[in-house]
Amino acid sequence: MSSGFTIVNDNNNVLVSSDTKNLHFAGKATKPSTPLNTFTNHGGFVELVYTITLSNRASIPVPFFNMPDTSKYYSIAGIKGLDSGSSDKTWSITILRTGGSTAAADMPEVYVFVDPTSVTTAGGTGLQVFNSDGSISFNSRALPLAITHTVLVEPPSNPVNASNFTTLTAAQCGGIDNNNFAPTEYNSYISHKYLPKPTKPIYHYNALPQTQREAVFSSYTQGCTGFSVYGNCVGYEESLANTSTYWAFYRGGIGNIEEETYLSVVRAGWIPVIAGCHWASTSDGDFLVLFGPGSSSSAGGAWPYSDETINLTLQPVIVADGSRYD
Amino acid sequence: MTNIIKPFTITRTTIEPEGNTGVWFWAQKTVYQENETVINRIATYISVAPEEDIDAAVYAFLQTAGDWL
User: Is residue B28 part of a domain?
Assistant: First the structure.
């Protein structure tokens, strides 16, 4: 004879079960005073590390974020725990966002949900469900996570198109302050349709997809002080070779919400998280070169991660209503 | 694109997950100045929609992305 407790909805989806752990609201994570990293090129980037301390070290937080500026892209890049106090664990939650204001008021709020063992509640009436080991699975005195809807999304494999691309200098990364890699590509998805819209939507989406794009600019200048005989310089010949490889690295993000009367459209796109440049320069000069071979150089191989996209797969965006927990 | 001498070289292509063709290519231009020869080169990657002509897309890129053509 089996025992246990299960609540299902009209579609036979399990809402509460004594075999699983339900997520409950543990609190809002603390905003950082300043971003960990920022830059303004390529559409900009802000990396925010939030913290929250949970009383049970076995509990793993599941964060949701709101979008104060729905024209930006956001994602969760990491969750890392460190033991604190005698039995607590302090978690760092890294949120990525495309550029813009770094003021605390413009940072998203991060709502953290955990199993009920890390949630403290006051007395009163309610319903509690326990697992077979006696640990609590559901507690109506706490605030259970109520998912309003979900959608599967995937960004396009290439974050940029050619529309904003400009020629950059080959000399010593002199064009490092460029905006060639500002993400322009995205995929749109209907987030929800004909459903009651959340008063304050909060989202869970992980920055699993990664991509890198680069552009190499080279120049080779050869000059002859003297005169040329059958293409060879008689006099002083000098040459200068420059190569600069400009690049940007991205993580996946969601945002740019378009609200219409009966539906919301969410975009899956890219957040540039770091950008840079590598350069090489070679100069050479010879006197009285008539038929000589001069000097030479060679190169080979490839960058370890060059114009590639990885972890590109449909991923769920989980949406809840933050106003339930404010 | 018709069979002409192309001012670029396609080094590799791939089919992206959504069906576009990813194209690696380079292009080069040479400028002769007084006692000096300058060769400039660009190498990068673009995505080309399945129905588009790849050569034409690269050509269009080089026209818009600086003074390459």
Answer: yes
pLDDT of A286: 58
pLDDT in tens, A1-42: 457 888 888 888 888 888 888 899 999 999 999 999 999 999
- Categorise residue A270: left if φ over 0, alpha if ψ from -120 to 50, beta otherwise: beta
* DSSP category for residue B60: H
What is the distance between the alpha carbons of residues B25 and B30, in angstroms, rounded to a whole number? Answer: 17
> What is the number of structural domains in chain B?
1
- Please indicate, yes or no, if residue B59 is contained in any of the structural domains: yes
Determine the distance in angstroms separating the CA of A301 from the nearest CA of chain B, rounded to an integer: 14
Q: Which pLDDT value is given to residue A291?
A: 44
Cβ atoms A96, A77 nearer than 8 A: yes
Per the listing, tokens 């840079």 go with A276
CA distance A232 to B32: 15
Instruction: List the domain range (segments joined by +) for residue B13.
Output: 8-64
The answer for A 194-253 residues in CB contact with B (under 8 A) is 213-225
What residue ranges in chain A does DSSP mark as E strands?
6-8, 14-17, 24-28, 37-39, 45-54, 62-65, 73-84, 88-98, 110-114, 128-130, 136-139, 147-153, 187-193, 201-204, 210-229, 232-259, 263-287, 309-310, 315-321
Q: Does B34 touch chain A (CB under 8 A)?
A: no
**The two three-digit tokens of residue A129, written as one number:** 């469900």
Q: Between residues 156 and 195 of chain A, which touch chain B (CB distance below 8 Å)? A: 156-158, 161-163, 165-167, 170, 185
In a domain, B14, yes or no: yes
Its ipTM equals: 0.86
User: Per the domain annotation, does B3 fall within a domain?
Assistant: no
From A214, A219, A221, residue closest to B44, measured CB to CB: A214
- How many other C-beta atoms lie within 10 A of the C-beta of residue B4? 7
Q: Is residue B54 within 8 Å of B11, Cβ to Cβ?
A: no
> A234 - beta bridge partners?
A227
C-beta atoms of A162 and B37 within 8 A: no
Indicate which of B47, B48, B62 best probes the interface with A, i.e. most A CBs within 10 Å of its own CB. Answer: B47
Please provide the size of chain B in residues: 69
